[in-house]
Amino acid sequence: MFNKSGLSCLYEKHEATLHKVVALEQALNDRFFGMQDTIECMMLAALTGEAMVMIGPPGTAKSRLIRTFCNLISLVGDDAMTAPRYGKGQVQKEQKKEEYFEYLLTQFTEPSELFGYFDLGKLFGDEKQFIRDDAGMMQKAQVVFLDEVFNASSAILNSLLTFMNEKKYQDRGIVHKVPMRLLFAASNQPPSERGLAAVYDRFLLRSWLENATPRDTGDLLSKAWNETHNTPKSSDGDVDFSGLLDDLVSYRVTVDELTQNGELSIDQTQVTMARLKDLVETMRKSGASDMSNRRLVKFAGIILANALLRCAREQGKAPSIEAEDLSVIPRFGSDGPNSDLKNKSRLDLKQ
Fold this sequence. Notes:
Number of strands: 7
Helix content: 40-55%
Structural class: alpha/beta
InterPro entries: AAA+_ATPase (IPR003593), MoxR (IPR045427), P-loop_NTPase (IPR027417), RavA_ATPases (IPR050513)
GO molecular function: hydrolase activity
Number of helices: 14
EC number: 3.6.3.-
Keywords: Hydrolase
Strand order of the largest sheet: 2-3-6-1-7
Distance between the termini: 17 Å
Oligomer: single chain
Region (Disordered): 324-351
């Protein structure tokens, strides 16, 4: 799917970063039970910068996973792991950095709760300045987590579209760029209203979670109890993940540079292209996803990232796009759970 020389060049330039992402993936899997697929999806989101939404019932550790991820990469302190969540007027005092923003959305959430209220002191002061107090707000963060994202009002969702697409937000006609590098969201269920389709489509990566089965109760309790009462500190472990966000951005810059100078390109002669065409047709016919042109193009970057991470996990193998790398499309790109399709596609693509 991608030319082999470009793949090798990209892997060599960022081999250390890829191994660090794999180590982070393992660190998270060591702390959370039954979330391997979601954590794998998170690593793809981190490497590519694509938006990700987790969909599953309450109590499946969606918020905890995001906080742990941010704790390990040193965006939040250890005290934030037990801090109350944002939302409904609560201020998370333990969150002292602007790099991370978390909020619980409801149908009554106003844009000012995300972007900041106007400073009344300055408004009624001598100079009468109409200035928004945006310290610690969403437009200042590098990593954003929006819980129950599909509960938001149309005003919030309209603002979110521009925020997600262009990494900009408009304030009284003025367009501001934002430093956001990663956007995660969570919801108890997928959106049912047609008006939410545009926002849902922008979440390229979707991961579906379920409660553990009764058979897995022991394993769940073992990991969850330790995670809750004996949480490892972010400084623990052999790998230092601080600075990883900068490394991830560097990877994306290299992808652009290699593409611009012709070193990284789509190779239509490879066998995986035929498998990809069949997979897209299956997705559309089964109703799993319309697979719009935009989503298909963006998933090329996900397939690329998946192949490189697979190479880093296996070690010693030359990077290449294999048919099994295409499984990220049904696994993380479907509109619904579609467990049967995901399992069938994963088996078919390994053959």
